[in-house]
Amino acid sequence: MHEKICESLIEQAQLGDHLAREQIIEQGKPFIAKVSSTICKRYLCWGRDEELSVALLAYNEAIDAYNKDNKTTFTTFAHRVIHRRLVDYFRKEVKQQHLSLVPIDEDNNEFSKAEKDISIIKYQDSTQQEDLVATIATFNMILKDYGITFKNLVKCSPKHRDTRENLMRIALYIAENNELFTQLKKTKRLPVHELCKKLGVSRKVIEKGRKYIIALTLILTEPELTALKNFTSFPNTI
């Protein structure tokens, strides 16, 4: 149902049509709950979990900010906004929780400093974990626009180091070439002919590594996926 939300309805809402906005939000509630539960890694219930209220506000924000000219579906865009707002919420909640556990001991400054250091470390670890969960969920949504799933990606990931580094170089080249990157974003397909010509690689290599190349290119170029760069060792040169 959510995929069927028409752009004209979103345009009406952006122009101030409250009924159109209410209709989009009502249709989007199952989507909001599903995305939020996935990011939070637990079942969320309307009227009970604050995370859904945060996600609902983010969804409403996405309605106002969506631009169809960016060649991104509203579903993907809304997912990204929900992701960002929930991550902000996680950070705020975890920070407040750990700061409240830091003891104030004016008679023993060393003890207080140690406890504070432990609290900060716990906060940083928890924040990083929440960020990674949310980032992976967003990555999965973005990949769907290109007809790719995590299951496909795992199956097609190259086993040999040389092959993997070769595909990484191709992804780097696309990410650094505005013309080729724009073509990829617009068509959701690799510019195979141009890559073969400019990089001197065979069509077979590019087509076989298509999903892997696209995934790496997205990691390099999408701001929401920055955290995933730490798990990928890109070559320094093309």
TrEMBL record:
InterPro entries: RNA_pol_sigma-I, RNA_pol_sigma70_r2, RNA_pol_sigma_r2
Motif Polymerase core binding, chain ranges: 50-63
GO cellular component annotations of the record: cytoplasm
Keyword annotations: Cytoplasm, DNA-binding, Sigma factor, Stress response, Transcription, Transcription regulation
Principal localisation: cytoplasm
Pfam families in alphabetical order: Sigma70_r2 (PF04542)
GO function term, MF aspect, one: sigma factor activity
DNA-binding region: 192-211
Subcellular location: Cytoplasm
Superkingdom as given in the UniProt entry: Bacteria
Recorded coiled-coil stretches: none
UniProt note on regulation of activity: Negatively regulated by the anti-sigma-I factor RsgI.
Range of residues in the leader sequence: none
Domain RNA polymerase sigma-70 region: 48-93
Quaternary state and interactors: Interacts with RsgI.
Task of the protein: Sigma factors are initiation factors that promote the attachment of RNA polymerase to specific initiation sites and are then released.
Family stated for the protein in its record: Belongs to the sigma-70 factor family. SigI subfamily.
Protein name per UniProt: RNA polymerase sigma factor SigI
Organism per entry: Desulfoscipio geothermicus DSM 3669
Designated gene of the protein: sigI
